[in-house]
Amino acid sequence: MMRLKDWARAIKRDVHALWLAARDPRMPWYAKAFAFAIAAYALSPIDLIADFIPVLGYLDEVILLPLAILLAIRLVPAEIMAEHRATAAAALKKPFNRGGAIFIVAVWALAAVSITWWFIPTAAK
User: Fold this and answer.
1) For 84-103, what is the mean pLDDT?
2) Is 80 in contact with 24 (CB distance < 8 Å)?
3) What is the number of H-type helices and E-type strands within the chain?
4) Average pLDDT of every residue of the chain
């Protein structure tokens, strides 16, 4: 189980590193474009294949996305990837800002209550 967690942390670090590399001016344009596309897809809630489709639904997360991440890493020059991996690893070690998360959840809850209040007709008096 620890190997799977370590692998997931490495993938998370590498996706963040690819995102950073995609914005690095030292990168070749084709590697920059591919790294940006893969990082954006990995961080996006939208899937290529919908998850509710049996077996195929998780194909992109389990097989296609890790392979695309590996290809993107190979396109990034080694010294640039090492630099951005170190930055991404340091970012993962920073403490999570619970106050910011609570604020975001509160804003969404307030929006949900407001929308509900707006659309539910009030009882006739």
Assistant:
1) 81
2) yes
3) 6, 0
4) 85
